[in-house]
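Person: Please comment on this record:
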Amino acid sequence: MENATKTKDEILRLVKDFADEAHGEQMRKYVPQRYIVHPIEVMEICSRYTDDISVLCAALLHDVLEDTPTTQKEIETFLLTLLDKKQTEKAIRLTVELTDIYTKAAYPHLNRRARKEKEHERSAQNSPDAQTIKYADIISNSVDITKHDKNFGPRFLREVKSQLKTLNKGNPELYQLAVETVERCLVEMSRK
């Protein structure tokens, strides 16, 4: 572990680079930007409410297991070069908690609504830190989808509005911001 010689900013830069490499050539859905722009935004939102390095690392890594071939073991091996064992275990646990289980590939017999309902039930059991990261993820995605997808936007916003009703264990200020952002985006979508 080299944590003693690296600052928080250096650690986060290295984790960002790892996540960026893991996401490879993936791009944002609506704009010509590398995918890493979204995890960086999620981490930056979280950093306004916590300085917990494990939370901030998990925010950067929150889509890696779900959207890339990178394994949990590969993430753990990498993080152990930057963080102590306890911090690494926490970052891994949060990343796993934030990884959707009820995906179309894993549950092709379930429609989107059924998969989302099961995912919402599962995520309601997540730790407060994982829920805090999810609030930032919802904020980032809500703003992006509202700007760029008038067809899917209302559906997505209704889904996350419903999800937020059961995600109530995270940072209360960020939770309130997520609720307000979704409401604002719903109003904006209704005007389009």
Q: What stands out?
A: The chain has one domain: 3-190. The chain has a mean pLDDT of 95.
